[in-house]
C-alpha cells in the first residue's frame, strides 16, 4: 500500500469549494442590495428634481414644525415675505464655483410671525465685511424665494464650529440661533435664489444639487466577484475529480 496515494478526507476536499460557494452567495446578496440602493437613489433624484422645478410654496410655519420631516421637504422651492432682522450676519466657510469664501446667513422675520435663517448667497474671502460689499441687508419689506435646506449640525470635515470665536464651517441652524439670541427659529434654512439675491454681493442661486450615484458600478463589482468565486469553487472540484480519476 506504499505506492497508493493518500486521499484527503471528504470534509477537507470540500472545505475550499464550500468557502468559495459561501463567498459567492454573500457577493450576490451585496450586489442585489446595491441594485435596490440604486433604485432608491434614482427615485430620490426624481423626487428632488420635481421639487426644484415646482412652483414656490409658502415656507413651512410653526404649526408644522412639531412633526416636520425635513428630509421629505429638502430642496422644495419656498417663498417668504417679511423683513431681515437687524444684527450681525453669520458667515459660514464655503467653496463654490466662484472660489473660496463665505455663505452669508441672516435672520428673516416672516410676515406670518416666525423667524427663519436665510442664506443670502456667496461672498469671496476678501469681501466678508458688509462695508466691502455693494448690497447690505435690506431693512424694508422684502419678498424672496429659494430652496429649503436641512440644518448642518456640528461643523465641516475635521473642523468643528467655533461659535465663541465666530468660526463657522456648517450652517447649523440651532447653534447659530442660540449664538445670535434669536430664540425659536425654523428647523431649516432657505438658500435664496438668484432672483432674490442677484448680487453682485452676496450672490444667491449657487445651490448645488448633486447626488452621488455609483451603485451600478458597485453592483457589477459584487456580481463579478460572485462569478469568480463560483468559478474558483468549480475549478477546484473539477481538478480534484480529475486527480482522483487518474489515481
Task: Give the SSE layout.
Elements: H1 10-52, E1 57-58, H2 62-65, H3 70-73, E2 77-84, E3 90-96, E4 99-110, E5 115-124, E6 142-150, E7 155-156, E8 159-160, H4 173-180, E9 188-192, H5 215-246
Parallel strand pairs: 1-2, 5-9
Antiparallel strand pairs: 2-4, 2-6, 3-4, 4-5, 6-9, 7-8
Helix pairs in contact: 1-5
Structural description of this entry:
There is one protein chain. This protein starts with 9 loop residues before the first helix and ends with a helix. Helix 1 runs antiparallel to helix 5. By secondary structure, the chain is α+β, with helices and mostly antiparallel strands. Strands 2-4-5-9-6 form a 5-stranded mixed beta barrel. It has a two-stranded antiparallel ribbon with strand order 7-8. The chain is elongated. The chain has helices at 10-52, 62-65, 70-73, 173-180, 215-246, and strands spanning 57-58, 77-84, 90-96, 99-110, 115-124, 142-150, 155-156, 159-160, 188-192. The chain contains 5 helices and 9 strands; from the N terminus they run H-E-H-H-E-E-E-E-E-E-E-H-E-H. The relative contact order is 0.19. Helix content is 37%, strand content 23%.
* Largest sheet properties: 5 strands, mixed, barrel
C-alpha termini separation: 13 Å
Reading the helices and strands in chain order gives: HEHHEEEEEEEHEH
Strand order, largest beta sheet? 2-4-5-9-6
Beta strands, count = 9
Inertia-based shape = elongated
Query: In percent terms, what proportion of residues is strand?
Result: 15-25%
Please mark out the parts with pLDDT under 50 across 5 or more consecutive residues, or reply none: none
**SS content category:** alpha+beta
**pLDDT averaged residue by residue:** 82
The gyration radius over C-alpha positions equals 29 Å
Estimate the helix proportion, in percent: 25-40%
- Counted by DSSP, the helix tally is 5
